[in-house]
Design goal:
Elements: E1 6-10, H1 14-31, E2 38-42, H2 46-49, H3 66-74, E3 79-83, E4 95-100, E5 108-112, E6 126-128, H4 132-141, E7 146-148, H5 154-162, E8 168-172, H6 173-178, E9 187-188, E10 203-208, H7 212-218, H8 224-239, E11 248-255, E12 258-266, E13 273-281, H9 285-300
Parallel strand pairs: 1-2, 1-3, 6-7, 6-8
Antiparallel strand pairs: 3-10, 4-10, 5-8, 5-9, 11-12, 12-13
Helix pairs in contact: 8-9
């Protein structure tokens, strides 16, 4: 009797399925014909079902992972593929991230039929984005623009833009690349101009903590540099108790064993913001992220997060 297939749990959006199929291909390539048979199982999450309300009003990031986490813990699936930026700071007990894939593009894309850049948009133009981080940074850069919530997967948001529901939108360049839609980007924003979300562009693979066999299968997929940079950024987010109600950005970059971290926290209206930059050894990534969070909280003052609640 053939062994049961290794089931990958995934959301059903085109981007989520691309990521799951990518992990499937990597597993098959890593383990060859004698490796496990790998199949996908689509799981609809609360975040997928609720499209008419801002996520921050409904519980935030966990809305895209709760049902998948439950399936993982029940044993219905062996592993789950996530955009790391969608994961809550604390994983459900009994689960772990067994692999972080090589990280590619971290920047945001500006997309518009009205202007070639955010700066070139006319006063009063509408920018649609569901990301509180992007909303706050747009308002910081261009307080004269109107910002509106823009829910849906990548293709849905692009269709909304085509219908004229906004004059511009911002999307992850990594997502556009993975869907073959990179040519839809009007401009790619430098990280000096628009600091990305924590773990943007990174794909993580979760499994049960006690599932040694699956962890061993996933080990060849892990990229140490991506794992380290994401750990630094998530340590920063954890220290700030980040949620979908808090505009937080952070990016760790590693070169020749040295790590450079930049972080930012803003009010939703973009009127107040605080920035931090720290450097150190890559092996100290988690501590650097934690220290950066502590330092930024000191700069912002004890009431900064409280008034965002």
């Amino acid at each position: 009797m053939p062994a049961s297939p290794l089931l990958i749990g995934s959301r059903g959006s085109p981007l989520a399925l691309w990521q799951a199929e990518h992990v499937r291909a990597l597993l098959l390539d890593a383990h060859g014909p004698d490796g496990p048979k790998v199949e996908l199982k689509v799981i609809t999450t609360s975040g997928d079902r609720i499209q008419d309300q801002p996520l921050r009003e409904l519980g935030g990031k966990g809305l895209f992972t709760k049902e998948i986490d439950a399936a993982l813990l029940r044993g219905d699936i062996a592993l789950a593929v996530h955009s790391m930026k969608d994961l809550p700071t604390e994983l459900p007990e009994g689960t772990c991230i067994a692999a972080v894939l090589p990280r590619h593009e971290v920047r945001d894309a500006f997309i518009s039929h009205e202007a070639g850049s955010l700066e070139a948009l006319p006063a009063g133009a509408v920018v649609g984005t569901a990301s509180l981080r992007r909303q706050a940074q747009v308002r910081r850069i261009r307080p004269d623009l109107r910002v509106t919530d823009f829910r849906g997967n990548v293709e849905t948001r692009l269709r909304k833009l085509e219908r004229g529901e906004a004059d511009a939108t911002l999307l992850s360049m990594a997502g556009l690349d993975r869907l073959g839609l990179a040519d839809r980007a009007t401009a790619v924003l430098s990280t000096d101009h628009m600091l990305p979300a924590v773990a943007q562009g990174a794909i993580g693979v979760a499994c049960r903590s006690d599932d040694a066999e699956t962890r061993a299968l996933l080990a060849p997929l892990n990229d140490p540099a991506a794992e380290t940079s994401v750990a630094c950024e998530r340590a920063f987010l954890t220290k700030l108790d980040g949620s979908c109600r808090t505009p937080i950005a952070g990016l760790a970059e590693i070169a020749d064993g040295a790590l450079r971290f930049r972080g930012m926290i803003l009010t939703p209206d973009g009127g107040e913001w605080h920035e931090i930059e720290m450097t150190g050894k890559a092996e100290d990534a988690w501590r650097i992220g934690q220290d950066a969070g502590d330092d930024l909280l000191t700069r912002a003052g004890p009431q900064f997060l409280a008034k965002l609640g």
